[in-house]
Write a structure and sequence with these properties.
Rossmann fold; 127 residues; alpha/beta; 40% helix
C-alpha cells in the first residue's frame, strides 16, 4: 500500500550523518535519535557517497572539512546522483565563497560547530 497516507505520516524520517570527527558525529546522531529520526552514520564523505541507498534518506547532514572528499564535493556528487532531500552542512570553517557554492547546490542550511540542537531540527523540518 504505497499510497496509504497514514503509513506515510507514521514513517520515521531517515537521516544520513557524515563527519570525520567522531564526537561531532555522535552529537548530531544523538540529537536526531532523540527527535525520533532513524539515523545512519558515515565516518567520511567517501564512505557515504558509496552507499547504494544514499538517495533514500530524507536528509543528510555533513561536515564541510573532511579528508579525501570534502563536504562541497560530497554534496555536489549526491545532487548529481539525483538526491533531492534536505542537506545541512555543519562546519567550523566554511567561508563566504564556500557558502555561495553550497547555496547553489540547494543546501537547506549551513550551521556552525558545535551544532545547536534546535537549529539543526529547524533546518531539517519539511518545507
Amino acid at each position: 500500500m504505497s499510497g496509504d497516507p497514514t503509513a506515510a505520516a507514521n514513517r520515521r524520517h531517515r537521516a544520513l550523518c557524515v563527519d570525520d570527527d567522531p564526537t561531532a558525529l555522535a552529537l548530531v546522531r544523538e540529537i536526531l535519535l532523540r527527535a525520533g529520526w532513524a539515523v545512519e552514520c558515515a565516518p567520511n564523505a567517501e564512505v557515504a557517497r558509496q552507499l547504494p541507498h544514499v538517495n533514500e534518506f530524507d536528509a543528510i547532514t555533513t561536515d564541510h572539512e573532511m579528508p579525501e572528499l570534502d563536504g562541497l564535493s560530497f554534496v555536489a556528487s549526491v545532487r548529481c546522483a539525483g538526491y533531492k532531500g534536505r542537506v545541512v552542512v555543519i562546519s567550523a570553517s566554511a567561508g563566504p565563497a564556500e557558502q555561495r557554492v553550497y547555496r547553489a547546490l540547494r543546501v537547506s542550511a549551513i550551521l556552525a560547530k558545535p551544532v545547536n540542537a534546535a537549529e539543526l531540527l529547524q533546518a531539517l523540518q519539511s518545507e
